[in-house]
Amino acid sequence: MGISIVVTSGKGGVGKTTTTANVSTVLASLGKKVCMVDLDIGLRNLDAVMGLTNRVVYDIVDVAQHRVVVSQALVRDPRFEDNLYLLAASQFADKYVLDKDSVGTIVEELKQRFDFVMIDCPAGIEYGFQNAVSIADGALVVTNPEVASVSDADRVVGILENMNMPITPHLIINRIRKNMINNGTSMRIDDIVNHLGIPLLGIVIDEDRVISASNAGQTVAFDRDSDAGRSYQHIAKRMLGENIPLDLSDESTKKVGFWGRVFGRH
Amino acid sequence: MSDIILKGDKNGFSVIIGVNANYVDAFKELKEMIMQQNVKSTNEDDDVINFTVKTGNRLLNDQQKDDIRELFEKYPQLELKGIETDVESKDEVNKAMKKIQTTVESGIVRSGQKLTYEGDLIFLGTLHRDAQICATGSIYILGEVNGVVQAGYPNNTNAAILGNLQNVDQLRIADVIEIVTDDNRKDFQNGKFAFIDDMHSISLENLTNYKDRLNDLKKRTG
After folding, report:
1. pLDDT digits (tens, 9 = 90+) for B93-145
2. CA–CA distance, A27 with A240 (Å, rounded to integer)
3. What residue stretches are annotated with the Septum formation inhibitor MinC C-terminal domain (chain B) (predicted)?
4. How close, in Å, is residue B139 to chain A by CA atoms?
5. Given an 8 Å threshold on Cβ–Cβ distance, is B111 in contact with A91?
């Protein structure tokens, strides 16, 4: 029996889908059976970020309305053998066709088959969000180091805490700007962690490679030269219980050394 | 003048309701005629006699049809083969017309939009990713398609998808789905057509061969 984890943020555009895709792919590459579930009905993206759009035939709404069974709607990612599957959101249906019961039944069924059910939550704290978080065993709260995002994350953490999930929500700080950290104009990471008061699972720096990878339908986590990719590797390994210290200097604020300054490398 | 005419041929008897007859009178006459016939042949070993009721340029409503069926059910020796008419209701005609019509569509179909058509579709526009066009007949693509193209919905295996298949994500004909991946993308070009082959899977051919394909279809369906 696996566990279900919802990736949520409150605010839009902070990197829920990217986080879902990267963490899921790393977990799959480490031999875990993972199923990604896109619950952003009507504005689905996870299939596009994964480069699986062309393979989607049935979606979660077809399953909820009993047109097909879950296994028929699952899209296998051929890059991860038999470890990674996607249950796409519907792009055509209205989000109100799903409710807590139907989503709950589907996720429970997936938990029988998979080690991790990673749920990509829609932005906001409305109907779609409620469906997504109500059935999750745990949550990854994604935020950016900026006031608006942290404030929305705070609201989300409050809602999650009232739900008493079996696993306490964990924090991922995404899109950290190296240069802003270096010149001290960014929000401080420990301030954000202290403010939100939930365990920090990882930090990810803002990198062009993240966007170019998802444009190509790939995840940055397997780009050896990418700091963000390495962060996602670490996050997934921490989820599996590995003790990897959070190295700020390595993961986000790599000081530009002498040779780096000379050659302009960052 | 009689309101109904009884005619016999090798398939049994036809009852023709006259063009100028009053329907109520005609029905009454039919009833009386059957009663007389039945009196004459009461032998249970006799073959069942087949009847067809022909209404000519007259359309019966469901109630009237039910009355006729009920009447025949009373007599086990008589079997009603059907109620035939030479005309169709406007609704039926419109439905039939829609099946064979061709729609021309242009413009952009965006993500999350799904356009469905009765009959064939000539698509001049742009179909974005995550969008869908769906027709009961064939689809001729002159524009650009990136999303899902579905012909022959829901079960017309004779439908085809023709023209510019470059960049399409997924083709569906009747109940068959072809997913375009990096492995087979090179087969999907402009100037091709996709159809359901004898193995009931989607095949691709050059447009120049479409005529042969149509001839094959004619042979198969007669």
Report:
1. 888 888 889 999 999 999 989 999 999 999 999 999 999 999 999 999 999 99
2. 8
3. 108-196
4. 19
5. yes
DSSP output for B51-94: EEEE-TT----HHHHHHHHHHHHT-TTEEEEEEE-S---HHHHH
ipTM confidence = 0.75
Mean pLDDT of chain B: 88
Q: Rounded distance, CA A158 to CA A142, Å? A: 14
Virtual torsion, Cα A100, A127, A23, A245, nearest 10 deg: -100
B68: left (phi over 0), alpha (psi -120 to 50) or beta: alpha
* CA atoms B208, B209, B215, B221: torsion sign: negative
The confidence score (pLDDT) of residue B48 equals: 79
Architecture of domain A3-263: 3-Layer(aba) Sandwich (3.40)
Per-residue pLDDT tens digits for A102-158: 999 999 999 999 999 999 999 999 999 999 999 999 999 999 999 999 999 999 999
Chain B contacts in chain A segment 78-97 (CB below 8 A): 91-92
Report the predicted TM-score, pTM, of the whole model to 2 decimal places: 0.77
Residues in chain B, overall count: 222
Element (DSSP H or E) covering residue A28: helix A16-29
Q: Which tokens is A87 given?
A: 């249950």
Of B111, B114, B170, the CB nearest to A54: B170
Domain ranges of chain A: 3-263
CA distance A116 to A26: 12
State which amino acid sits at residue B164. N
